[in-house]
Design a protein that fits this description.
Layout (H helix, E strand, L loop, with lengths): L1 H12 L13 H36 L6 H27 L8 H25 L5 H21 L4 H20 L4 H43 L9 H18 L3 E8 L2 H8 L1 H17 L8 E2 L4 E6 L5 H13 L5 E3 L2 E3 L3 E8 L6 H18 L4 E3 L2 H18 L7 E10 L4 E13 L3 E3 L1 H11 L1 H17 L7 E5 L2 H4 L3 H13 L6 E6 L7 H14 L2 E7 L5 H7 L4 E4 L1 H6 L4 H16 L3 E4 L5 H9 L4 E2 L8 E2 H8 L2 H8 L1
Parallel strand pairs: 6-7, 9-11, 11-12, 12-13, 13-14, 14-15, 15-16
Antiparallel strand pairs: 1-3, 1-6, 2-3, 4-5, 8-9, 8-16, 8-17, 9-10
Helix pairs in contact: 2-3, 2-5, 2-7, 4-5, 4-6, 5-6, 5-7, 6-7, 9-10, 12-13, 13-14, 14-15, 15-17
């Protein structure tokens, strides 16, 4: 019971209209309503405070000849000074961007100040009316009536503040009139009660209407500013919050931080379980992240798996670090999705304003650079922005700009690494590997530019070039040699890829059975439903499909059931350790045995020693690939490699 009373009074003095029978709201909406109420009060406050100061001076003049002159002057000076100080403070507050959320504590302070100001005017009829002249009494009556009306106007949307302000004045008038039994004063008392009732009735009607209007406005704005999936603020709302923080920084020097988050394993969740599970994962992540923040702050979803937070009124950088670490810890517990446990992780980049920038573009660019470094360091990493990040970001953007013209400048080329058939001791095909010869950087590793290509969409243009070049090169090889091309998830889900492959094979006059697609487990398949038709069409065409990096993904056996793979490639991590770690050897033997039963060929990747090759012969592996056989060679060297008898002798040894 005591707790309920405490909660009720906390809501009451925070201006919650449900305490008076008005519309009920949740904490977030109540905070927004308080922000609108506070904004209106601040809008009136300068004029109201100026009126208070003028009224105090008028009262002092009216009581100049009264025996209470000294006390009246002290009172008038105090009220006028306080009113002017509060008016100046309110004017400064109005220049700062209106907050979207105001706490209960801030509203408690407003109600307290309203009561103190009302009490100051409630003293007037009690202390000065009896000894005042007739003119002075008239002035006091007018001033008190005016303050009642002014208070009702100023706090027209906050009934508790209006009551807090007007109640002391009513009490003061009642005490004053109660001392005098004159009928005229009793009539005045009656009129004051009627007058006050009408005023308060108007306050309640206006405040309820105002609250409902704000609630409708909030609901309408949510459709524009709210992410429909997670119900968090979207990028538009985040940009507004960031702009408001920058404005406060410029006007009052209020520092803030921006935290940028990226989910490290979201793509894997989509790849394994599909989009419905991915959506549920995002919803649960959003709930956990929001619980880590302060009441007035909201995490925003600004991209697919990217979230951001503006931390206002930052006292010290450690506060931002504390919130970031809470975000990281929020992923410690697995997520329960569709009866499964899913482990997630996040990385966080932090920028501090104005230290790291005072413009939105610079802040977000630097936050992205800090996040990039955090992601490179591994899941669960938090990084503050450093100047080195800016250099790295500029270098990455320069690389992206150069990559956009790499095809036109003929800087991309293919190299080919052979597959060796262990039964026939001959090369049966080559894997096409993309390389980039940059004019100033030299040979750029695929690990540096493939990710950029996927992020920017350049992978589609580059992928088409690879397909056409590989097919054109294949046309010069013997009919029993195939070429394998790696595909990324974004390529595979582009419906135009089917036409590209068909056209490339037709232009090169190459049989489809000589063209092989290599796809990884990690790309199977974030959009499997839409990709199945493309894959099946390619299989019907005669193109073969290989599952690359087998054993490093999620549900290999599930995919072996779903899709008719021609080959699976055992990841080199198992091949590298199979002679020294029994569990790796067991995995290799089991995969080969399973594949044989399923009538699927097996390729062992990363073969580098003769002992590894011999072991793979013993366990009946179909094909091998690795530096022992050959490093990747240029297209011009493929035919020479195929005709080299020395290689065949080594293979047979």
């Amino acid at each position: 019971m005591r707790t309920q009373l405490t909660t009720y009074f906390a809501r009451l003095f925070a201006g919650d209209l449900s305490a008076f029978g008005g519309p009920a709201t949740d904490d977030a909406v109540a905070g927004h309503i308080r922000a609108e109420q506070m904004s209106l009060v601040l809008g009136y406050s300068v004029g109201i405070m100026l009126a208070n100061a003028c009224n105090a001076i008028v009262l002092a003049i009216a009581l100049w000849a009264s025996p209470d002159r000294t006390f009246a002057l002290i009172w008038a000076g105090t009220v006028a000074a306080a009113a002017i100080a509060f008016g100046v403070q309110s004017r400064a507050a109005r220049r700062i961007t209106k907050p979207h959320f105001v706490s209960q504590r801030a509203m408690h302070r407003l109600v307290r100040n309203a009561f103190l100001l009302g009490a100051a005017w409630g003293i007037v009829p009690v202390a000065f009316f009896a000894n005042a002249s007739t003119g002075g009494q008239l002035v006091i009556t007018c001033l008190c009536s005016g303050m009642l009306a002014g208070g009702a106007l100023a706090f027209a949307t906050i009934p508790i503040a209006a009551i807090a302000f007007t109640a002391p004045i009513f009490v003061g008038i009642a005490i004053c009139l109660g001392r005098n039994g004159d009928l005229a004063f009793l009539l005045i008392a009656f009129l004051v009660v009627v007058y006050g009732s009408v005023l308060l009735r108007g306050v309640f009607v206006n405040s309820f209407s105002f609250a409902r209007r704000v609630m409708r406005q909030i609901e309408a704005e949510r459709t524009v500013r709210q992410d429909p999936l997670t119900h968090l603020p979207n990028r538009f709302a985040f940009n507004e919050t960031l702009d408001a923080a920058l404005k406060r920084l410029a006007l009052s020097g209020e520092e803030f931080a921006v935290l940028l988050l990226d989910l490290d394993r979201f793509k894997e969740v989509n790849d394994k379980f599909g989009h419905p599970a991915g959506d549920e994962f995002l919803v649960q992540v959003a709930g956990r992240l929001q619980r880590c923040t302060r009441a007035a702050e909201h995490v925003a979803r600004i991209g697919g798996d990217e979230f951001a937070l503006v931390m206002a009124n930052l006292a010290r950088p450690e506060d931002a670090l504390e919130i970031a670490e809470r975000f990281v810890v929020a992923f410690d517990e697995p997520f329960q999705i569709e009866g499964r446990q899913i482990v997630g992780a996040t990385s966080v980049g932090i920028v501090l304003a104005p230290r790291d920038g005072n413009m939105a573009l610079d802040i977000m660019k630097n936050a992205d650079a800090a996040l990039y470094r955090a992601k490179k360091a591994g899941p669960g990493t938090v990084c503050f922005f450093e100047q080195a990040d800016d250099r790295l970001s500029r270098d990455r953007k320069a690389l992206q700009a150069d990559l956009e013209g790499a095809i036109a400048r003929d800087e991309l080329f293919l190299v080919f690494q052979p597959f060796l058939d262990l039964d026939e001791n001959r090369i049966t095909g080559f894997e096409a590997l993309l390389r980039w010869q940059h004019p100033s950087r030299g040979l750029v590793p695929p690990s540096e530019f493939i990710g950029i290509a996927e992020e920017t969409g350049l992978i589609h243009e580059i992928g088409e070039w690879v397909i056409r070049r590989a097919c054109a090169t294949l046309a010069d090889w013997p009919e029993d040699i195939r070429v394998a091309v790696n595909f990324s998830a974004s390529q595979f889900h582009d419906t135009a890829i089917l036409h590209t492959i068909v056209q490339a094979l037709a232009d090169a006059k190459v049989s489809p059975c000589r063209f092989e697609i290599e796809i990884t487990e990690s790309m199977l398949l974030s959009k499997y439903g839409s990709a199945a038709s493309i894959l099946n069409a390619l299989l019907q065409l005669g193109v073969t499909v290989a599952l690359d990096d087998f054993g490093t993904g999620f549900s290999s056996l599930t995919y072996l059931r779903k899709l008719p793979f021609s080959r699976i490639k055992i990841d080199q991590s198992f091949i590298r350790d199979m002679l020294v770690q029994p569990d790796c050897a067991a995995i290799v033997k089991s995969v080969i045995s399973l594949a044989r039963d399923l009538n699927i060929a097996v390729v062992a990747e990363g073969v580098e020693t003769a002992d590894q090759l011999e072991y793979l012969r013993q366990v009946s592996c179909d094909e091998v690939q690795g530096y022992l056989i050959s490093r990747p060679v240029s297209a011009d060297s493929v035919l020479a490699l195929l005709n080299t008898k020395k290689y065949r002798a080594i293979y047979a040894a």
